[in-house]
Design a protein that fits this description.
heterodimer; A: 194 residues; mainly alpha; two-stranded antiparallel sheet; 4% strand; B: 172 residues; 7 helices; 72% helix; 0% strand; globular
């Protein structure tokens, strides 16, 4: 896990767990706000796709894991694809930089401890998603078999299902990284402990 | 079941039986409703059996790593797999088993992710392009698809372990 982020030209120390937790809370708050806004805009008709696309910059800039960049090293242990193109103009204007790559394999290669943490985070994320799938299945079954049970909902059950599925995908793409950022102790503590 | 070949055979048999039922019940459009219900009950039975098989036969140990001492073990005793004689510390997962479990979940996450993504992609396209005319039985398809997903989510990590672990003699 990296200890700092570069945002708007500033170096932000992310070694304390408190700050990482704030980042995670802000990201999910942002997703919730986006989802609410999109509901009022077009009832997620086409905007649900944008919500899922929004996870790409979030992972690239803040979380990492499934993309190179962000605080967590790539999960797949592979080097990033080399590109001769300069960084996007938007990122340069916003002065958002990817962390300076370490020499050798350190920028992307996870050691044994990090692999263990990665797998544990996926184990925990899997439990949360399993519960979501159970809820989805129960709702669709109620709708098909016992519709009177969900007839009192003010929103059409199709919309509830659609929103829940979209949220589940957003969470699935970001949750393991968020769990790692949330649970890992302060880095200074870690060093003093060892 | 020390041999990987046998374990893989069991996994394949379970999947074959289960997929056969899914295809039969979910994608036959002209089934009368009560017939569909019976098949769904049958699917539930198969799924429960599949979920319980690793626990009953002790192919894969409890992923939580904890088991209640007061738990009724009559079913397991029936198959000669009672834990009553084992010390409590040997019931919880050791470090290697926890590593194995977490690695299986990591792999399962990467299998389930694209499946979930494809499902949502289909739903989004369905909503945007209004494809009701092309998929008149969409509700039943969604119920069955979610059923597939539910089953996959529950069973996949255990089955990955059964599939990947080498022959026990080899490991020793």
């Amino acid at each position: 896990m990296r200890a700092e982020l570069f945002l708007l030209g500033k170096r932000i120390d992310m070694a304390p767990r408190r700050r990482r937790r704030w980042l995670v809370a802000l990201i999910y708050f942002g997703f919730a706000a986006l989802m609410t806004g999109f509901w009022f805009m077009d009832q997620w008709h086409t905007s649900a796709a944008y919500l899922i696309l929004a996870t790409i910059p979030v992972n690239r800039l803040f979380l990492g894991g499934y993309y190179f960049g962000g605080l967590i090293k790539p999960f797949n242990n592979r080097p990033p694809k080399q590109s001769a193109l300069p960084p996007p103009v938007l990122l340069l204007k916003l002065r958002v930089y990817l962390p300076v790559p370490a020499t050798g394999d350190e920028a992307y290669r996870n050691d044994e401890r990090e692999l263990g943490q990665r797998n544990l985070a996926h184990y925990r994320a899997y439990q949360a998603l399993s519960i979501t799938v159970v809820i989805l299945w129960a709702l669709t079954n109620f709708k098909a078999e016992v519709p009177r049970l969900i007839a009192r909902l003010s929103i059409p059950v199709d919309m509830v299902l659609y929103g829940l599925v979209t949220a589940a995908v957003v969470v699935a793409i970001t949750l393991p990284q968020a769990i790692l950022l949330w649970t890992e102790p302060d880095m200074e503590e870690d060093f003093s402990g060892s | 079941m020390a041999r990987r070949r046998n374990r893989r055979l069991i996994v394949v048999c379970i999947w074959a039986l289960w997929l056969l039922l899914i295809v039969f019940s979910g994608y036959v459009p002209d089934l009368p409703p009560h017939y569909f219900d019976r098949i769904m009950v049958c699917l539930w039975g198969v799924a429960l059996l599949v979920l319980l098989v690793p626990g009953i036969f002790r192919f894969v140990r409890n992923f939580g790593g904890r088991e209640s001492v007061d738990r009724d073990r009559s079913i397991r005793t029936l198959f000669g797999t009672s834990d009553e004689d084992r010390p409590a510390e040997s019931i919880s997962l050791d470090e290697r088993e926890i590593r194995l479990r977490n690695a299986a979940y990591y792999e399962a996450y990467f299998i389930m992710g694209p499946i979930l993504f494809i499902g949502v992609f289909f739903l989004i396209i369905y909503r945007i392009l209004q494809l009701q005319a092309f998929f008149p039985h969409i509700e039943r398809t969604i119920v069955v698809s979610l059923y597939v997903l539910l089953f996959l989510y529950q069973a996949l990590p255990r089955q990955l372990i059964l599939w990947h672990e080498p022959d026990m003699e080899e490991a020793q």
